[in-house]
User: Fold these one by one.
Assistant:
Number 1:
Amino acid sequence: MAAKYNLFKNPPKGNKSEQETFHARIVPGRTIQTEQIARELATMSSVSTGDVISVLDNLSYMISVHLKEGNIVNLDKIGHFSISVSCPKQLTGDRKIRSASVRFKKVNFRCANELKQKFVSMTMKREPSGNENPLTPQQRQQRILDFLAKETSITSTQCITLNGCTRYAAIKDLKTLTEASKIKRLGVAKSIIYILP
């Protein structure tokens, strides 16, 4: 099965006479949950779906244990995980930074080369736009809610692809839905996701 993509206009760089340029983005498909992965792995081995779920749950726990100790966790043929931290930007000297000021920022993931190679022969298929007329804010927001009715979460990048809109419009739609208590925002910085309340 092919991955679907669509083309989006690049924002102008100031010179309006320049020819329009485009970039391609993947159109988000379904969100594959742990249970489906577990069922698929179970068919490839002699262990049950329940055993696979238990192993994945324990793997998640052990990754968090080692990352909390400042270690890097490397999973062969998958990639390695590490932690990023942040501290207040207004501090000017290293002696002014206390341990309490340094906080968890995000989990970094670097894909293993073996896994990257599996995508070299990836099949792509262009997703037809269907409607060339831009969606109204209300239509975009309803599409976000419809997406969340089927999937567990959505990101601003997924909203851009879902509605064929700019990042500014996607963030504005998400903010409107959040302020109306129709969705809930979780995470910080580049790790922000939105879920149904």
Number 2:
Amino acid sequence: MKKVIGYVSVKQESRNHPYHKFVMESFKTVCDQNGWELVKVYEDVCSSPKEPRIAQIQMHNDLDRRNDIDILLLYAFGKLMVMETSGGKKRMRVAK
């Protein structure tokens, strides 16, 4: 079973919006549909675009330390993006 981590950045005022909850559920749905194990979703909640992305930094640090993560799911531009991280090659596609 492939192991997956996810990442999303959200504005502070949108965190409790139903669409954000839908996005968070989408990580689980995509993993369930593909038979993947969702290990963790990193979430940056920011009130300004200039704020540091602490969760993103932590995610990259964890990826450097762990070698058992096969896929990174990113929510960007209204889509879930799938980045395969195994085998030293990185390939990205839009989740269906």
Number 3:
Amino acid sequence: MRLKLLMRNDCKLCDDAIIELKLALEDFENVDYERINIDHDDVLQEEYMLRIPVVMHQEEIIQEGIIDFFTIHEYIDGYFTNLGE
């Protein structure tokens, strides 16, 4: 499983999101994330400029704005639980 973190340079909420993501991912093997800096993409800037940071899985937004450990952890846990059903 690979998550995406849409972020910008010099963004305190983005720095906090990285910490929360790292904490949430500690409990899961084979889950990582990719940092995508929207400053380098005009289309992403237009869509997400006021919403960052944004955590996504595939094209689904898991959380935006203030990212917290519990929401990310719960999403990943639910994803793997549903795979087993």
Number 4:
Amino acid sequence: MTQMYATAAVALAAELAADLPAEPGPDPETAVRALLAMAHLTPAEDEIAGLVAGFRAARAAVRLLYAVPEARYDEPAVLFSARA
């Protein structure tokens, strides 16, 4: 994925996140720092600031994966049944 596509995806997720209610849980900075600590990663402060800025949008994008209740029990398109 090129940087252009990643930036567009983050921008779209941020736009969609603005319409979603806030989620319960830790604030984005606390969550990002905890996740980085668990992964034993030590990025620079400006990189952490970027991750914090995109955290809500990333969470919204994950929530959108489950936003279509009708698709919950459907089989993925990669399955093929020779019986049909």
